[in-house]
Amino acid sequence: MRFVDEYRDPDAARRTAEAIRRDTTRAWTLMEVCGGQTHAIVRFGIDELLPPGLSLVHGPGCPVCVTPVELLDKAQLIAARPEVIFCSFGDMLRVPGSHGDLFAVRARGGDVRVVYSPLDALALARQHPDRQIVFFAVGFETTAPANALAALTARRRGLRNFSLLVSQVCVPPAIEAVLSSPANRVQGFLAAGHVCAVMGYEEYLPLAERYRVPIVVTGFEPLDILQGIHATVRQLEAGRHEVENAYGRAVRREGTPAARALIAEAFEVTDRAWRGIGVIPESGYRLHPELADLDAERRFDVGALVVAEPAECLSGLVLQGVKKPLECPAFGTRCTPDTPLGATMVSAEGACAAYYRYRRRTSEGAA
């Protein structure tokens, strides 16, 4: 199908919504796998424009949300050490571990700093040769090139006081984990455009074929999302299961080769634990063995720490598309952005935070 490039054209959005309603003849369940898309869907009421029976569920699309509790606890243990300057993006500071968050560590005297790039942490390593600088490398494939560059630059410059606490996760294995679950009800996916801008979309081709589901690479504006939904519905109605690129202004089949080369040079694929989901085989990155001395888990000997998820939080079911935030008994009462039980509430891109901000009155009205 032809995709409209004027992605902020309200008339095109209305026409696309009408086309979705016209072309949908059966009940379908679709999943978006990007927290930014989730917020756009809830904020602009995109799901409310869809015909009855066409349901959107929210997947593991926020790397902050899927960072496991044990890694958050490791971050806090490292950050509390007097010789450490712990650097992180701001959205990680309020994510709860089993005993508080990084803000609490800072309140107790830990040197925890918000940075805007791993290269900012590298600069601190040069400025403070007597301190250990640790960067919390969290993210999907979109953040991996910059984190890889930081590791490779530290090695090249001989910065022995710099390390990374790595929580890099990859999207395609998470999609496969959803599809292979006995509880799965997802029949089509909106793939995250920013991830595909880096990695391309060839990795999705075997998934679409193996599980016979359409996967449509989708952007972040309301029209982008509507076009992605329409393309997915058209495939489902026609009995097709292909990978389709609805975000051609930013994504190419091969992605960005230079960024992929950086990732391959610094990282290797490994099994990763996802908060609320568990370990997904070959779903993340770790530093190559030749860069192992830059691994903060090894440097500070916190690799063996294991903790349990909070039993009350249903974020794992939300991340798998089994539940929606409003179905959680704790939503908006025991679990709020000020007192979050899980990362889907505290993260700026979490599904629960989106519903709290834009749908809380609906929930209160229903109660």
Structural description of this entry:
The protein is α/β, with parallel strands linked by helices and 367 residues long. The chain has a domain at 64-168 and 280-299: Rossmann fold. 40% of the residues lie in helices and 18% in strands. It has 17 helices and eleven strands. It has helices spanning 10-23, 35-43, 63-66, 69-79, 102-107, 118-127, 144-157, 171-180, 193-199, 205-211, 222-238, 257-266, 296-299, 315-319, 343-346, 351-358, 360-366, and strands at residues 28-32, 54-58, 84-88, 111-114, 132-139, 162-169, 188-192, 215-218, 243-245, 267-274, 278-287. Strands 4-3-5-6-11-10 form a six-stranded mixed sheet, with helices on both faces. A five-stranded parallel sheet has the order 2-1-7-8-9. Helix 7 links the parallel strand 5 and strand 6 (162-169). Helix 1 runs parallel beside helix 11 (222-238), helix 2 packs parallel to helix 16 (351-358) and helix 7 crosses helix 12. The mean pLDDT is 91.
